[in-house]
Amino acid sequence: MTTPPEHVPEGISAVLPAYNEEAVIATTVRRTHAALTASGVPQFEVLVVDDGSSDGTRIAAEHAASQLSGVRVVSLPANRGYGAALRAGFGVAREPAIFLMDSDGQFDPAEIRLLLDRWSDMTVVCGVRAHRSDPLVRRAYNRAFFTIVNARLGRTALDINCGFKLFPRAVTRGLVSGGALISTELLLRARDAGCRIIDVPVSHAPRTTGTATGASPRVVVRAFGELWRLDRRLRHEPLTRPLLDSDSD
Questions:
Q1: Most distant CA pair in the chain, distance
Q2: Secondary structure of residue 125 in the 3-state scheme
Q3: Separation of CA 15 from chain center
Q4: With the CA atoms of 163, 164, 169 and 173 taken in that order, what torsion angle do they form, in degrees rounded to the nearest 10?
């Protein structure tokens, strides 16, 4: 086991959203479990959220969970979207810190050590895909969309939608986004509550299985709709909530 960083959370809940990731989910779960075991964190759990997959994702994840301690599978009855899957995971998480990692095999869970090096109770540590291995159209959409987000809502992180983050569980309370805008909402809540947002470069491998949905027309339209609703909501009510001092659930 490696020497733990000077400041680590008392416990981490790793939340892995998964949609049609049958080919890689078991490997992702095992690698995440191994990375957390080696991290020096006193206690942890791994939560796989199957977002109504139409393949064998749930079965593969449950098989991995049967072989490892501290792994649970949350299965949604239908595909509800990235944000809904994350909120389901956050809602059953037990530990004070959340490690969010997409389960498509593009991230290396061992790099949680890079996030832990910058951790504190009032910090959101955000991965930045230094060499993003996604199709050009998806990268172009991402750049254009978040240029609009930053113009309307202010800067939060360099790579807002990077699915590799470590943050206090308290900032997840009250999230409402059902799609990709949940990352923006979470970071705005953290920023406005006084959390420091730190960007850390992480590796990003090409997807080898499955199909990315981030740039599909349905997802894009939903993201713009959520942005419009979030912008309107922010004009009428703040996102800020008391954080760590009231996180007793």
A1: 49
A2: strand
A3: 7
A4: -20
**Structure tokens belonging to residue 167:** 């943050």
Q: What domains can you pick out in the chain, each with its CATH number?
A: 11-238 (3.90.550.10)
**Separation between Cα atoms, residue 157 and residue 187, nearest integer Å:** 8
Cα–Cα distance measured from residue 82 to residue 167, given in angstroms and rounded to the nearest whole number: 18
Amino acid sitting at position 177: S
Nearest to 15 by CA among 78, 92, 110: 92
Nearest to 129 by CA among 206, 189, 195: 206
> What does the pLDDT look like over 178-201, one tens digit per residue?
888 899 899 988 998 999 999 999
pTM of the model: 0.82
| Cβ neighbours around 139 below 10 Å, total | 14
For 84, other C-beta atoms within 10 Å of its C-beta total: 21
- Bridge-based pairing of strands 97-101 and 43-51 is unpaired
Cβ(18)–Cβ(61) below 8 Å: yes
Q: Which of the two residues, 156 and 98, has the higher pLDDT score? A: 98
**169, two tokens:** 């569980």
Tokens linked to 88: 């389901």
Tell me how crowded residue 145 is: count the other CB atoms within 10 A of its CB. Answer: 20
- 50 three-state secondary structure: strand
Q: Are 245 and 121 in contact (CB under 8 A)?
A: no
Return d(Cα 210, Cα 23) in angstroms, integer. Answer: 8
Query: How big is the CA angle at 168 (ends 34 and 175), to the nearest 5 degrees?
Result: 115
Tell me which amino acid residue 155 is: R
